[in-house]
Amino acid sequence: MNYKVQRYLHWLRRIKYCRGFGVQSPSAYRFIRYVINEHYPYYAYDELRKELPRLDSLTRKRMELYFRISNYRQASLWLDYSRRDDTIATYVGRGCNATRVRNIADSQQPVSRDKIEVLRICPIAGCESVLAAALKQADDRTLFVIEDIGYNDTARRLWQTLLESDVTSVSYDLYYLGIAFFDRNRYKNNYIVNF
Questions:
Q1: Which of 29, 52, 69, 106 is least surrounded by CB atoms within 10 angstroms?
Q2: From edge to edge, which strands make up the β-sheet containing 189-192?
Q3: Which pLDDT score, from 0 to 100, does residue 110 have?
C-alpha cells in the first residue's frame, strides 16, 4: 500500500484524539495543543526547509516537533541515542540556542551519571540497556522520546517498559514516537495523540 495512503488511514483511525479533545488535565492539554500539535509556523521553519530541503514529510514533521520540544524545555543538553545525523542537532539548536545535542550511540558509557534533561532513543542495537540505565537517573525534569513505537517491535517493547515503569508519570503516544515525563507530582496517565 502506498505510504501516504497508510499515513492517512492511520490518521483517520486516531481522529478522535486530535488537538487535545477529551484531555482533562490542563498541563497535558497545553502540551498537546501548544507543543505536539502546534500548527503555528515558527520563525525558523522556512529557514530550516531551505537549509535541509531533502527531508521527507514525516522526518520534517518529527524534526519540527523536536524544535518545539526544545523551545518548550530549554534544556542545556539533549542526549540522542541514534545513528549519527546532524539534522536533529540543527532543529533542536534552532528551538533553543542554549541546547547542545550529544549523540551517545558510539559512547563506551552512553548514559553518564549526569542529570538527564532530554533523551531520544531510536530502536537500534543497545537501546534496551540505554533505557534501563537512563530510567535510574530520571527525575521530575526529565523527558524521554522513543522513536517508531507504532511499527517497530523493539521500540514497542521500549515504550511498554516506560509505560510500566513506576517512575513514569505522564506519557504521550503519537504512534510515530512516544514522549514520557517523570514528574512525580502528576498522576500516571498515557494519552493517545493524533500527530
A1: 106
A2: 100-103, 77-81, 118-121, 143-147, 177-181, 170-173, 189-192
A3: 62
